[in-house]
Every structure is written in C-alpha cells, then in structure tokens.
Specification:
This protein is an all-alpha fold. It is built from five helices and no strands. The longest helix is centred in the C-terminal third of the chain and has 21 residues.
Amino acid sequence: MPRATKTPTIPLPLSLERWYSDPNNAVALRELLESEAFKVAVATLSQANLPTGMATALAPSAVERMAWLAGYNDFARDLVSLTKPRNQHSDPEPWGHIRPQHL
C-alpha cells in the first residue's frame, strides 16, 4: 500500500483577500465543485442528515440537529460563492451579527 504524503499545513486564519489574490483559486474550485463526484457527495450527505419525523418530535435535540444542518448546507453554498468574482456577492464581516453588550 503506498504511503500517504502529508499535506502541507496552511496557517490560519486566512483572509478572503488571500483567496481572491490568485484568480486560479476560483477556477480550480469551480472544476472541483462541478465534478460529478462532489455533487453526489454533497447530495448524499445532505440527504443522510435530514431530520426524520421521529427526530423532529424530540426536543431540544431536534432543534440542535436542524440548526446544525442549516450550517452544514450553508457550507456547500459558501464554497460556490468563492468561485464567483468578489464583486458579485456580499462580503459580510465575520460574526458581524453579534454585537457586544455594554454593561
């Protein structure tokens, strides 16, 4: 069995500026997202994680599962948004919806 090569670590956090600084990033990602294997994988995982009738009857775990699933589905849409030029979508400030409480 061939030995797996270690993927180089990319330091975090990464900015959107870094992503958009290389136009080849969007092209390579678009090719990946348009592949049949990726589409089937997303559809399979999305379908497998849908809440069932029994899960929706069990609160609060049903609420937690649906909240998790909403974020899970956003991830695939967010990947697609990275394939578009920056001026074609809004670029909200991360965590901008959270406001500090003043005591």
